[in-house]
Every structure is written in structure tokens, then in C-alpha cells.
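User: Let's play a game. I give you a shape written as C-alpha cells, and you guess the letters that built it. Ready? Here's round one.
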């Protein structure tokens, strides 16, 4: 496995990140990618990371912290590079950063049908909290 370089997102990464999210199936009609990126860089830009191999962005992760719990959003690894340990490296980075901020618990949401993601998160120690997640779109 090649070493994954993990660094903060920069505005020059936008198009490459959007293409990556397309390849990963992260873009949806209700999550317009430019809007998601702009929201993240307006709030906690120091918690938006990209993973690179040989200078090419192959993965992303958005981390959040609201003073009580940490959150993981938009963890994506290009399909050509999945199952090689890169998502695990991004999660390790996210957990390291969150611990440094005083975070004691990390939450994330996975769509029920995404069995591969569920298996991945369980393999790195996440468990089902047996809660129902509700959401309400304000826009």
C-alpha cells in the first residue's frame, strides 16, 4: 500500500473533490457538492481533509465537533482505491484531531442499505447505538 498523504482541503481541490464524490456516490440532489464544500470551509475549515496518492486526491473526510460530540461526514475513497486501508487512515486522522479537541465520542450516520460502509465502521470499532436518526431539511 502506498503512503496516503492527508492534508487540509484547499479551494484548488474543489473540482477534484466533486469528481471524487461523484465516483463514490456521495453527491445527491439534496446535498449539492459546492454548497456542502462552501458550508464546511465557512465553518471549521480545519476539519476538512483530503487524502492524496502521488498528488492525486483519492479520498476525503469532513470532521465536525460541536463541543460535545464529534461527527464524521463524507468519508469517501475512490472505488479504485477502496479496501486498501485508506479509509481507516482517514478515520485515524479524524479521531486523533477530535481527541486533541477534547472529544469523547464520535458519531456518524450510514444509510441502511450501505452494507459495505456498515461493515467497515464495525471493523474499526463503531457500534450501532440503536437510535433513530431524524432530520428536517431547512432549505
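Assistant: Ready! My guess for every position:
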Amino acid at each position: 500500500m502506498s503512503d496516503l498523504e492527508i492534508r487540509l482541503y484547499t479551494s484548488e481541490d474543489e473540482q477534484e473533490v466533486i469528481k471524487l464524490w461523484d465516483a463514490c456516490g456521495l453527491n445527491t440532489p439534496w446535498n449539492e457538492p459546492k454548497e456542502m464544500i462552501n458550508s464546511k470551509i465557512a465553518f471549521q475549515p480545519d476539519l476538512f481533509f483530503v487524502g492524496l496518492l502521488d498528488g492525486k486526491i483519492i479520498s476525503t473526510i469532513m470532521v465536525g465537533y460541536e463541543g460535545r460530540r464529534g461527527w464524521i461526514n463524507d468519508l469517501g475513497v475512490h472505488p479504485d482505491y477502496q479496501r486498501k486501508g485508506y479509509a481507516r487512515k482517514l478515520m485515524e486522522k479524524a479521531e486523533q484531531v477530535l481527541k486533541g479537541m477534547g472529544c469523547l465520542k464520535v458519531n456518524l450516520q450510514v444509510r441502511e442499505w450501505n452494507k459495505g460502509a456498515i461493515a467497515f465502521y464495525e471493523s474499526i470499532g463503531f457500534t450501532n447505538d440503536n437510535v433513530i436518526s431524524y432530520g428536517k431539511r431547512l432549505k
